Amino acid sequence: QVQLVESGGGLVQAGDSLRLSCAASGRTASIYPMGWFRQAPGKEREFVAGISYTGRYIQYVDSVKGRFTISRDNAKMTTYLQMNSLKPEDTAVYYCAAKDSPYSIRVLRGDNEYDYWGQGTQVTVSS
Predict the structure, then answer these.
(1) Which one-letter DSSP state was computed for residue 92?
(2) What's CA 27's distance to the chain center, in Å?
(3) CA 6 to CA 105: how far, in whole Å?
(4) Where are the beta strands (DSSP E) in 40-119?
(5) What is the structure's pLDDT at 104?
(6) Tens of pLDDT, residues 38-65
(7) Is 101 or 44 the better-scoring residue by pLDDT?
(8) Confidence of residue 126 (pLDDT cuts 50, 70, 90)
């Protein structure tokens, strides 16, 4: 079993930055592909960024490319999402997710592909 805990959300102004963290615990969490998703009010949950277990392979949704950076520190079993130049449309609850697929080099974009989820952290960007 893997537990995921997100932190780092908050209320910021447009143009500001935030760094979200996702701390994992449990067996083999450091070797799982990870992803960040978000869900805005009234909208479906959407893929934001994903990273393979080594960090070599990364993908982003087009709307955050050039502004967000996903990274991971496997020694700390923590995945990060650095968010720069935030926009009001980035307002959402952000979730991290892990796929129970040790050593996979895949980057997974579908929320139904992940096995473990955190509780989410709210990010609110005011204009």
Answers:
(1) E
(2) 20
(3) 23
(4) 46-51, 58-60, 68-73, 78-83, 92-98, 116-117
(5) 84
(6) 999 999 999 999 999 999 999 999 999 9
(7) 44
(8) very high
Q: What is the pLDDT of residues 77-95, one digit of tens each?
A: 999 999 999 999 999 999 9
Say how far apart CA 8 and CA 83 lie, in whole Å.
11
In the block, which residue shows the tokens 């050039």?
66
Q: Which residue has the tokens 């129970």?
A: 100
Q: Which long-range contacts (CB under 8 A, 24 or more apart) does 124-127 make?
A: 124/10, 124/11, 124/12, 124/91, 125/12, 125/13, 125/14, 125/16, 125/86, 125/87, 125/88, 125/89, 125/90, 125/91, 126/11, 126/12, 126/13, 126/14, 126/88, 127/13, 127/14, 127/88
Instruction: Give me the residue label for tokens 């955050």.
Output: 64
> How many other β-carbons are positioned within 10 Å of the β-carbon of residue 88?
11
